Amino acid sequence: MSSSIKIASLGTPRIGPRRELKTALEAYWAHKIGEKELRETAARLRADNWARQKAAGVTVIPSNDFSFYDQVLDTSVMVGAIPEVYGWKTGGVTLGTYFAMARGAHGEGGAGSAPAQEMTKWFDTNYHYMVPEFSAEQRFTLASLKAVDEYREAQHLGYETRPVLLGPVTFLKLGKSKDPSLDPLTLLDALLPVYLDVLRRFAANGAEWVQIDEPCLVLDLDDATRDALRKTYRRFADALPSLKIMLATYFGALGDNLDTALSLPVAGLHLDLVRGSGQLDDVLAKAPRGLVLSLGVIDGRNVWRADITAILDRLEPVVAKRGTDHVQLAPSCSLLHTPVDLELERDLDVDVKSWLAFGVQKMGELSTLGRALSEGRASVAPALEAASAALAARRASPKVHNAAVSQRLAAVTPEMALRRSPYPERAALQRRRFGLPLFPTTTIGSFPQTAEVRKARAAHAKGALTDAEYDAFLREETTRTIRWQEEVGLDVLVHGEFERNDMVQYFGEKLSGFAFTKNGWVQSYGSRCVRPPILYGDVSRPEPMTVGWWLYAQSQTDRPMKGMLTGPVTILNWSFVRDDVPRSVACRQIALAIRDEVADLEKAGAPMIQIDEAALREGLPLRRADWQTYLDWAITSFRLASSGVANETQIHTHMCYSEFNDIIDAIAAMDADVISIETSRSKMELLDAFKSFKYPNEIGPGVYDIHSPRVPAVEEMTTLLRLARERLADGQLWVNPDCGLKTRRWEEVRPAIANMVAAAKALRADS
Asked: Which residues belong to the annotated binding site for L-homocysteine?
């Protein structure tokens, strides 16, 4: 072949191999470092990312894929979509204003006291983005040159990059307005001049290509959205005919949007061929000859080593037909969703490690593919043999397959997913058992994991604290937290979860079939990073996981103490999931393990058991036609885990930061006695469905936004609860924060929970 095929990266993890960005951000927020030091850390991380990609063989390197908090928030700032509450008028946007939008403000850093913007999940991932907020009088203006500055920064370091922008149509579709009559797409004509200004600046600084992400193209789109896409890219092409646009789609197949995508006057089109594996033939049949196809053949959202030989079998005829100049190889999406480097893992099981590929290794897989396609398979024979051997070993490994788990799953009956009696009968028995006041107060589960807690955990892990010493420390923290909950007046208590590192990891470490990393961090939002467990094999529960801590906690109080578990769907969706069995099978295996834990908690005397399904909504397929299949097995898995208890045992669940209104009937079908959900940032908007849908069970709409350091006033929480009363009966309402309090400080939690209890009492006085 005449030239080497290009290897492209759509974006990389920005947190750093050892979470350097997290450390710097939290030091900056704590006023331990200044803006200069924060920006210097960010510059080092960007330089390291560019160097890492070049060393791995990436030839199309992105810029503007870095963010201090979130790329959607960056776009809002770029175009001046900054609500009045943050005090910005014109000119450059300060970090104070930027972080106020992300985290709320108390009057510091150039912004007045203000709540954070709403936050929700990025498509069907566990990454969170800050929801753009628009108004009918919206004006857009270029308020940040970050994208151009980072392109120039790369140039000065010797890297010619392809800058990345979130597409204007997707940006508008991700946004909301407080005016429900405003369709954000009507703002397109006002928005496009700002984008054109940025694109002109790229061109003036020498950019040949720009990557514009329009993941909305994998969604169900109406004609208005398709028209908006055609208008947008025609405007770009007419204004800047020499600037080449790589239109990036990901997280699924184009489907019925394929013709629209191929009609757009762009130079390149990126395809997710992992989640949209079946679309390649249709694209090849219809794509114009001169269109550069970026083929996303390496999974950007999971950690399994690729089947390089199978991918080559698929790609060789494509490259032979279109030529290396019109094909690029890439991950399916940004590598933001994967850990940085597998080589940092020193303690992983050697077999499991051989089956994995993190960000750096995925770039290496792409480089291997590119060389094989450009120079022939013989040029990379050792790499191909190693990949094939690892795949064969994984398929045959007894670490993956457990006959007893398969047999138990085959014996499951439909009756196992049903409570013994309908909710009204259960509710009457539970009210008599607990005798709770109207608007009972509780929390979601975790309390602050202070520096002392983290220090003790680290010391125990290193052997500096014995098991007995660590246990004594945890008991002291638990008892202190129980005493405080009693003093502040909470009706239903939790033990605080000080023994838990993470709500999924804790359980995965106690279940068979999971592996864990030391440095496999991925960003969830801002400085919040998680290490997803790696689900590699059949799942079972060797022994009880939480019963001992519940028994101790309940022994410290006469008030009801919830048993706290993570549900099967959330464990599945927040893990790197095996790709050799259907997700539904893996989920049911986890459900049976959780069912065993529920039974043991009830046997020990737990009167209330909360089974969190925080990730239920985010697993929903992006296309509505696929929803029911997912919901059927997801809801059945939850019910399989929760339904083996007596009527008097109250089952709670929790779901956070998702849009629930369109699946409210499925949530009702979970048949949990009490659900708690996020509603504070959306100002109870998530309860709109209850105006028409008569939700039968009890619900705690979160009134305290725990993702912000703000302490909401009693009046603010009372207002939210009154909004909830417009949609739900008083007897249905619980009062709680919208998520766990692990990441907050006690200095924030104590007054906020006290205010929450006061708000509940105010409502009782009004009733």
From this structure: 444-446, 497, 612
| One-letter identity of residue 408 | R
DSSP string spanning 347-360?
SS-HHHHHTB--HH
**Residues with pLDDT less than 50, the chain:** 1-2, 108-111
Query: Which residue ranges make up the annotated binding site for Zn(2+)?
Result: 654, 656, 678, 739
Specify binding-site residues for L-methionine: 444-446, 497, 612
8 Å CB contact between 81 and 101: no
Please give the full DSSP string across 476-488, using - where no structure is assigned.
HHHHHHHHHHHHH
pLDDT tens digits, 23-35:
999 999 999 999 9
Of 260, 270, 278, 268, give the one whose Cα is nearest residue 244: 268
Out of 128, 270, 495, 707, which one is annotated catalytic?
Answer: 707
Give the H/E segment covering residue 110: none
Task: Work out the number of other CB atoms within 10 angstroms of the CB of residue 692.
Answer: 9
- Residue 386 CA to residue 377 CA, distance in Å, equals 13
Length of the chain, please? 767
Task: For 679-742, give the DSSP string.
Answer: -TTTTTGGGGGGGTS---SEEEE--S-TTSS----HHHHHHHHHHHHTTS-GGGB-B--SS--T
C-alpha distance from residue 140 to each of 69, 119, 231, 618 (Å): 21, 21, 18, 31
Residues contacting residue 604 through CB under 8 Å, at least 6 positions apart = 547, 550, 551
**381 exposed, middle or buried (CB, 10 Å; 0-12, 13-18, 19+)?**
exposed
Give the per-residue pLDDT at 141: 97
Q: What is the pLDDT of residue 657?
A: 55
| Residue 190 C-alpha from the chain's centroid | 31
Look at the block and give the residue holding tokens 């006023």.
31
Q: C-alpha angle 319/324/328, rounded to 5°?
A: 85
Give the pLDDT confidence score for residue 617 in this predicted structure: 86
List the one residue out of 686, 720, 725, 689 whose CA is nearest residue 704.
720
How high is the pLDDT of residue 603? 98
Say how far apart CA 75 and CA 81 lie, in whole Å. Answer: 8
Residues annotated within the binding site for 5-methyltetrahydropteroyltri-L-glutamate are 19-22, 121, 126, 528-529, 574, 618
pLDDT at 683: 61
Amino acid identity at 549:
W
* Cα separation, 280 vs 290, whole angstroms: 16
Quote the pLDDT of residue 680. 64
- Cβ burial, residue 665 (10 Å; 0-12/13-18/19+): exposed
SS (H, E, C) 588-620: HHHHHHHHHHHHHHHHHCCCEEEEECCCCHHHC
Residue the block writes with tokens 């061109």: 203
Secondary structure class of 251 (helix, strand, coil): coil
Binding site feature residues: 19-22, 121, 126, 444-446, 497, 528-529, 574, 612, 618, 654, 656, 678, 739
Residue at token pair 């050799």: 580
Residue 307 exposed, middle or buried by CB count within 10 Å (0-12, 13-18, 19+): middle
Residue type, 366: L
Separation between Cα atoms, residue 433 and residue 456, nearest integer Å: 38
> 0.70 cut: is pTM over it?
yes
Residue with tokens 């083929």: 295
591-621 pLDDT, tens digit per residue, is 999 999 999 999 999 999 999 998 898 889 9
Residue type, 416: M
Residue type, position 55, single letter:
A
Calpha distance 314→649 (Å, rounded): 54
Please indicate whether residue 707 is annotated as part of the active site. Answer: yes
- Structural contact between residues 251 and 271, judged by C-beta atoms closer than 8 angstroms: no
Q: What are phi and psi of 594, to 5 degrees?
A: -70, -35
